[in-house]
Design brief:
CATH class: Alpha Beta
CATH superfamily: Spore Coat Polysaccharide Biosynthesis Protein SpsA, Chain A
CATH architecture: Alpha-Beta Complex
CATH topology: Spore Coat Polysaccharide Biosynthesis Protein SpsA, Chain A
Number of strands: 9
Strand order of the largest sheet: 5-4-1-6-8-7-9
Number of domains: 1
Distance between the termini: 44 Å
Largest sheet: 7 strands, mixed
Radius of gyration: 17 Å
Order of helices and strands: EEEHEHEHEHEEHHHEHH
Structural class: alpha/beta
Number of helices: 9
Strand content: 15-25%
Length: about 220
Amino acid sequence: MTLGIIIQARMGSTRLPGKVLRDISGRPLLGHVLGRLLRFTRPVKIVVATSSAEENDVIEAWCLEQDVNCFRGDETDVLDRYFQCARSFGMSDIVRLTADNPFTDIEELERLVDLHQRQGFDYTHAFGQLPIGVGAEIFTFDALARSHREGKLPHHREHVNEYFTDRPELFKIGQLDIPAAKVSPDLRLTVDTKEDWRRACVLAAKAGKGWLGTEEAIRLCSSSA
């Protein structure tokens, strides 16, 4: 099994343009996403997947400076971008992350991959209980290829996971159980608005060079509410 992590990233956010390289406590948002993955213990191929649009040249340049793999594909057909990237890098199972989530829970990500492999799922996710932006999902290349082949509706092409959720009878789907102390599904730890960005800056500053776990992030947000 060749495990891959594909991080989708582009500069063209409508609500917060250029957010993936926007500074959060001294380094760009994308840098925080990749920095979390330093704690991931399994052998893995990590790739930032952006589009071929000229505005994303700066993402490719940043990846080159940081010695990070970068793949460029379709701007709007994100499903095709993922499929082509996974195929190019020979991935058999793919974790999907996005460049606007700087607080991915790596402990739960490890458990997610373990569950996915152990149970032989086609698609496995950790959504619905963790704070927004903290969970992740993983799917096999075969399941991704089927989605790419059969998912024809616009939302299937724009959102990598929606053929799985639209046609669950076609796939063996698993969901990770989350510890009660990390359950906070209404808390936003993603970065999609200026308010999200300000919250991320505060949390990153409080963490300093240390590790900000999900339970601590929930506590900090609760105490400042």
